[in-house]
Amino acid sequence: MKKIISTLILCSVILGTVSACRCVMDEAKLFYYIDSEYVFKAEVETVSDCGDNNKYEYLLEIDKVYKGELEDEITIYSDCITSCSFKLETGKTYIFFTDLINNNLGFCEYRLSKGSPNYKAVINYLDLIERTKLDFLRIKNAKGQPLGDLQVADGKLDGLVKLYFPDGSLRLRGVYIKGLADGNFEITEKMLSNVEKWSGDYKKGQRTGRWIRVFKRNKTALHEHIFYEDGEIVDRYVVDLESQVDRFMPKTAPKKQ
Length: 257
Description:
Blueprint: E1 8-10, E2 13-14, E3 17-18, E4 22-24, H1 30-35, E5 38-47, E6 55-67, E7 73-79, E8 93-98, E9 111-113, H2 119-131, E10 134-140, E11 146-153, E12 156-164, E13 170-177, E14 180-181, E15 183-190, E16 195-203, E17 206-217, E18 220-229, E19 232-239, H3 241-248
């Protein structure tokens, strides 16, 4: 499933030294539940040293799976040599929000250790979703601000879903069928220096057809058309005069008659 929510990664070079990677994490952790292929709670049983594959290897004992399907024990990996690397602690329990691509944890995928300030609140809404047989849930943060309105059936998103920014403005609106995005979606992404609005269709959890991305460049509003097949981008172009000339101008001048 293509990511709905973009995570902004900031890596800077200062005096020739690469600083630690900083991932701008959203305050509303509900978004990571929507965005991830797998959401689960697990204890770290073993941790390896940095291996020849430049990875830490972890053996996890799964305590509870909130999204996706996993075995009781799984082996996963994380990078151990870049400025963005991290290392999980043996014996600690974490909640993971991840796509587990090639069994790897991405350095900006969200994880939360037991005992951290938000742990109980996240567990509470995950448990609420899991045990809901059929209801329309409003999830709020500790301040009572709404994070999302979710239609849930048998512990899965099933129906209309709305997510909100902390200021109450709409971040995402779309329909899920048995846990998979399906139908038209409207998505807003707030970057450090820009706001992007996306609209398009999902089919069984995959982006499909034409999506439109509205953004600003040098204070000028632009539209980018992005075309998907089976969730993968197959074509894209920005709809402004210059890009259209470049796109449709013949590559070679026609021969004179």
